[in-house]
Amino acid sequence: MGGGATRLYSTLTQTFSGSSSPLSIPPSYLSPHQPSLTNLDSDFCLQQEEDSPPTCSLDPVELLQQCEEALRDQPPRLLRNFVHTGDGGGDASSTVRVMQWNILAQALGVGVDNFVRCPLEALSWSRRKDLILGEILAYRPHVLCLQEVDHYYDTFQPVLASLGYSSHFCPKPWSPCLDVEGNSGPDGCALFFDRSRFELLDSVSVRLSAVMIPTNQVAVVTTLRCRHTGRYLCVATTHLKARSGWEWLRSAQGSDLLWHLQNLVQELGGANANVKVPLLICGDFNAVPSEEVYRRFATSPLGLDSAYKKLSEDGASEPEYTTWKIRGTGECRSTLDYIWYTKDTLRVDAVLDMPDEEQIGPDRLPSYSYPSDHLSLVCDVSFREKE
Known about the structure:
By secondary structure, the chain is of the alpha+beta class. The protein has a single domain, classed as Endonuclease/exonuclease/phosphatase (Deoxyribonuclease I, Chain A). The protein has 8 helices and 15 strands. Strand 8 (232-239), helix 6 and strand 9 form a beta-alpha-beta unit. Helix 2 packs antiparallel against helix 4 (125-139) and helix 6 (247-269) packs parallel to helix 7 (292-298). The chain is globular and about 55 Å long. The termini are far apart. Residues 99-374 form the Endonuclease/exonuclease/phosphatase domain. Pfam families: Exo_endo_phos.
């Protein structure tokens, strides 16, 4: 990490009780695969309880500037713009910014994925963590859904908690990261939300099943109450099974997640079947739009639609890609990542556009400019008026 960011994080560790004590992790979050506390990233050793308000508030603008300073000798981040949908009619005070991103597990990026056109230096954690945090801070989401998170305890939880986020992390039962020497523990799904905007009602981990058999894929399902409107918002994030040949398993996993969510919204709606609960489902589905699992979500009784279809001229097509990489097996450009929303209760007001081929560059992703092989999806949604 460059000097600017190191100075900032050093100041933070001194602010917390005047020491550099490691993050205190609640026992309920510990897993057999969690790295030892002695392995915590020294740049991010903040003393703070998960469910407690931060003893120090960071300025996200300053932190973003410091991340950019640390990378000042590298190409700039990909610059993207918001496209307003023109739907209108939403209450500006109720707008919620949602970010969905597979950030690429560090152990997989350097040990398994074989990005043959990406320099090893660009994959170093000391460089990638500044790019990842910079991307998050540039858009300041109220709700942040991440996959392939293997630096939750030593980086993302402590830093984002000090910026006002609460979170829930669910590791994969058999993470491939654990097969990589020097790993930082299992990867999994993490869901963060802005405490100033939302009150936590409940959050659960779901191990997805296929034909009643537990699989290695998981989801986090969190129920929130908006402090501005008093409205419920249910958010889920998941990462379905990867690779060709597993389409049937992704379909089964998606059906299992939909079943859990249908039960949840019925419970929240209570006896009145007409009460509709706003719902967001974010994730790396590892499925192109022609797959069965995509059709299951598009035709679900929950009344879901995909936010990124708003970028198309007809409002009916997904982007051409959300991931673009070159591995030893060849080049891959696919649409695998989605933000689903309940169209009867939520309105999409703006969507972050996708960088073009020239911006991404001939060596594709990841790169010195971008830390993951998946592009982040960001959209602004607002609550529709109750009927």
